[in-house]
Amino acid sequence: MRCLWVTLADPEPRHNGQFVYSGGLIDALAAAGAEVEVLGLARSDEDACTHRGDGRIRWWLARHQPRSHWASLVSVLPNIAHRCHTPDMVRMLRDLVSRDCWSGVVFDGLSVGWAVAPVFKALADRPRRPTFVYVSHNHEETLRAQIARNYVPSLKRCAMWLEAVKTARLERAVVDRVDLVTAITAEDGALYRARRPDKRVEVLTPGYEGQPIVGRRITADVPRRAVIVGSFDWIAKRMNLEEFICAADPLFAAAGAELRVVGSGDPAFLDGLRKTARATEFTGTVDCVTPHLEQARVAIVPERSGGGFKLKVLDYVFNRTPIVALDGSVAGVPLQHADSFMVFPDHQTLAAGALRAMDDLALLNRMQERAYDVCRERFDWAARGRNLLSAMAA
């Protein structure tokens, strides 16, 4: 199978969930036997190139041309797609579509939703039409509406609602045209099927590419510390973190416990949080999250806004860090409340629950062992590549 894969950008380095998922699926599809040519934006001008060979994968990286968020307001495209709709991307897509006979074309995320119409127009009438696939990272229509609802009333909230409307329109158009939709969680898959029960939808949860920790015992020697791992560049992630720190930091300070936030974010945003935090440390970007997980008793998932699969949950599970989470924030993993993790209804009770769990060492060790046991055979990238290749060939 020769596959054209259109994505937002070169996934390297894979420092956030979007790039981990895209890069993992590309590698897995090639490992399953497909020849994959990937078109995306270079992460910097220095990385732009006509092509780069990598075994069964060839990369075509367009020049990086940052675009203003506000410019998308006058575009029919939502910002998620407008940022990727650059002259170089359009030109290189046109060249790739015209020069080869593709077995399949994958549109990786709604960032490249703009590409569906021109590719469909160019290839749909060919005698051997390729299979068109939409690889979704979230059910974007639901997610963008949720973000707009959770934003404080303001002119910016109005812009968020406009973004949500444009996102829903583009996502529906993409789903209507492709042959196959892949969803990152069963919950997202059900949302796609509810609107288009006739559409083929396959669930492709991520794999885990790290080195699992075979065994761990949490003892009193581990600091009384909770950890939150993530990339905080996206507005939904910033909203979640700010809301939780506001509720949790005073409780942690009063209890003499520590909260560590590990991951990248706009320096001005992180500095703003540091000014008022008493018990919370912000590391910024780190090379490896493992040392931070080893020195924490519990991991927290506090996400009120934002759907899809939280790949950091797999880091927690396979590094044997017990998880406490906001109800509804952990989708796609077979964890059960009070058995392999704990869920709470709001940020205040989540912070208080994390503090209680932190001092119950037997509970912490039982949860991390159960979470590891139920997940260890379920998140294999090689299986995801075989599943995707089989679905495309069906």
What does the model show?
This protein has 394 residues and is α/β, with parallel strands linked by helices. The protein folds into two domains: 2-207 and 379-393, Rossmann fold (3-Layer(aba) Sandwich); 225-375, 3-Layer(aba) Sandwich (Rossmann fold). It is 43% helix and 18% strand. It contains 14 helices and 14 strands. It has helices spanning 17-31, 79-82, 87-99, 116-123, 140-150, 155-177, 186-195, 235-255, 267-276, 290-294, 311-318, 347-358, 361-375, 381-393, and strands at 2-9, 35-41, 49-54, 57-62, 104-108, 131-135, 180-183, 200-203, 225-229, 258-262, 280-284, 298-301, 323-326, 342-344. The chain has an eight-stranded mixed β-sheet, with helices on both faces. Strands 11-10-9-12-13-14 form a six-stranded parallel β-sheet, sandwiched between helices. The longest helix has 23 residues, at 155-177. The protein is globular. The mean pLDDT is 93.
Descriptive tags:
14 strands; 2 domains; globular; 6-stranded parallel beta sheet; Rossmann fold; 394 residues
